[in-house]
Amino acid sequence: MLQGYKGRTHPLVITESDLRDLYISKDMSIWQIAKKLDISDNTIHKYLNSYGISRKASFHSPKKLKIDPGILRNLYIEQFLPITKISKILDISKSVLYRALKEFNILQRSPSAAKLPSNFNGVCLTCNKQSKVARCKSCSDRDSYLKHKEERLRKSRKYRKLHSEVAREYAKKYLKENRQRLLEYKKLYGKTHRAQLNIASAVSRHSRRAKYKKGTLTVIEWREILVKQDGKCCYCKKETKLTMDHIIPLSRGGEHSKENVAGACWPCNMSKRSKLVSEWFGEQNG
């Protein structure tokens, strides 16, 4: 019996002479011996240590195993086969295969390079940025997002609803850690999209002013609403800083009057947006 880990024993499955013949004479790897005898690599290691059979330095050499670099290059570069499949074809372990690739200087290539179009010249065909493939990762990710946009938004809304506190803490942490980068991006976006931003701002401002003229809400009335609510959101009842929310949105024909205005926390106000309360509650509960 062979003494193993923590005093455990293994039934004798191979004699010293047979193991020495496979390991020394036939230059078989531990992986090959384990596969041949249908036992684990660790068991083979324990038998080698038990019998005092030393491991030869040249054992894992690809040249010693007579691996043909031409065949290996064809399988790995031309046919773009995965490492697992090549190791099975050549009947060698993955570690030996990796050594062979390194020793024969066979550089790794992306499988997508096999499908490069004839007009590819080192830049993405969509955004013209430097790329190793015809479509860079940003463009591919954008296409994937647009294709599955509705499903992703639905999952995102569901997650935020179930983990509102976690999502809020993550947003705070992200803003704190990336504040400088986000400010730089906002500044750059403002410079490159100045005309569009000005038009959007003007349309929104004039549209909202025109709608406000339909109502009669005064500053005093708004303060009275805040006092009446005692600093609590009219929807979630949390005590926090309140923002003005139109119960029937201005875009849906609501008036800017004390009867149609309530104090809501920022998350509820932004979540409700231009929806009616019944629609918003239905979406939240759905």
Question: What this model shows, in words?
Answer:
- The chain is mainly alpha-helical and 286 residues long.
- The chain contains 14 helices and 4 strands.
- Among the domains are: 2-51, no CATH class; 69-109; 115-142, no CATH class; 215-285, DNA Binding (I), subunit A.
- The strands form 2 sheets. A two-stranded antiparallel ribbon has the order 1-2. Strands 3-4 form a two-stranded antiparallel sheet.
CATH architecture title of the domain at 215-285: Orthogonal Bundle
In terms of per-residue confidence, which ranges show pLDDT below 50 for 5 or more consecutive residues? 1-9
What structural category characterises the helix and strand content? mainly alpha
Instruction: Give the overall shape, derived from the CA principal axes.
Output: elongated
Mean pLDDT across every amino acid position: 78
SSE arrangement, N to C: EEHHHHHHHHHHHHEEHH
Separation, N- and C-terminal Cα atoms: 65 Å
Number of E-type strands:
4
The CATH topology of the domain at 215-285 is DNA Binding (I), subunit A
How large is the count of helical segments? 14
Task: Describe the sheet with the most strands.
Answer: 2 strands, antiparallel
Radius of gyration: 34 Å
Helix content: 40-55%
Strand line-up of the largest beta sheet = 1-2
